[in-house]
Amino acid sequence: MPVIPALLTHAGGRPSVEALEARLLAGQTLLADTPEHVVEVVDVLNSYGVVLDAYSINLIFQAERQFLNPFPVFRFLDGDLSPAKIWRHLNGDRINFEYAEYCMKAMLWHGTGGLDAYLDSEPFAANCAAIIRHKTRRDPLLALLHPLFPNFLPEAIRAAATTHALGQFWRVMSDLFLDLARAEAAGTVRSIVEVVAFIKAGLVNAAANPITYGVHLGGERFWVLPPEAGLTFLVDVAVPYVEAVFLRGMPFLGTVSFNAQAQQISPDQAQFAYGALYADPLPTMGAGIPPSLLMQDMYRHLPERLHALYRQRSRGEGDVRVKICMSFQKSMFCVTNAAIDGTFPHALGTAVPAEQAANRAYARAWAERLAVARTDCLDPFGG
């Protein structure tokens, strides 16, 4: 068995590219396998699964029931316009769906993978044209807007398609994370190795799930993402999601300068490193820091076992959302770990030199990106 370099080899707690590459090629986990990490990852993903259930339902509602609504004031209410629901919403007693929209906009803006390629295709443009013809015949406001701003409605349809696809992706991930919590409670998952394997199996099982989306307008059905587009869960939505949300993200107002002369933001989107794996756990709770909204949602559904663990650490309840953010990052490294393991070009045990070289190149590419992420949180004593 090869000797694997220690993960933490750089001053300041950051691993070297070589150490990360070696662990990936050996099929080892990025996160240290400790009992406390198992509790953190399983319980924070349990909370996240509950939140993703709500996010998925709302995104699909928006895409299907608020389609091309120029003023979607009630889009976060899932069709429930009761005075009690509206009052709770106005008082902040609700899920923060703004974070779900942030993730959708990140996917739409970065535009990587098969979904984006289809949204740039001629068949998609033809579907948009048919929908717009139908819609503008019945909606005077859109009929007025379309000639003045001819790209407005096609872009709105692109956003709706991304919204629905993300809702379908999160439907799978919500069920997977809740199943993981049940498996751990039943004793069938006891280690980080088994957590990563469980997530990998779930991703592989859902890999070929079709991603389709149609809308009903005036009694007629129109395809936005038709079956013949051949879009699937893993390649066309999950991988672009990891790229846009885990890795690239978007710079948050108040954390970096948007002044072009300051040059704090790269002009190359491919060089962005503002995603979940890179984010500092900022406790601002401001609306301009989308992950803070997610931490609040997860706090509302936090399992008591994990909450008790947090109360025993440092400032107790005083920085609980920061602790949730740190645990969430650890869990996302596990999800990334599973995604990498499941998408190696060849089996890790291959003896074919060309296949080994392809695997090494794949692992190296990931290691170079992960080496500058928040990998200090992977240390068993890193928080």
Structure keywords:
mainly alpha; two-stranded antiparallel sheet; about 375 residues; about 5% strand; 14 helices
Q: What is the general shape?
A: globular
Number of helical segments? Answer: 14
Content-based structural category: mainly alpha
Overall pLDDT = 90
Largest sheet: 2 strands, antiparallel
User: Beta-strand percentage?
Assistant: under 5%
User: What distance separates the N and C termini?
Assistant: 31 Å
Counting DSSP E segments of at least 2 residues, the number of strands comes to 2
Return the string of H and E elements. Answer: HHHHHHHHHEEHHHHH
- Widest beta sheet: strand line-up: 1-2
Helical residue percent band: 55-70%
Poorly predicted tracts of residues: 1-12
Radius of gyration: 22 Å
Topology diagram in text:
Layout: H1 17-25, H2 35-65, H3 83-90, H4 97-110, H5 113-119, H6 122-138, H7 140-148, H8 152-185, H9 192-206, E1 213-217, E2 220-225, H10 233-248, H11 290-300, H12 304-311, H13 320-342, H14 353-370
Antiparallel strand pairs: 1-2
Helix pairs in contact: 1-14, 2-8, 2-11, 2-13, 4-8, 4-10, 5-10, 6-7, 8-9, 8-10, 9-13, 11-13
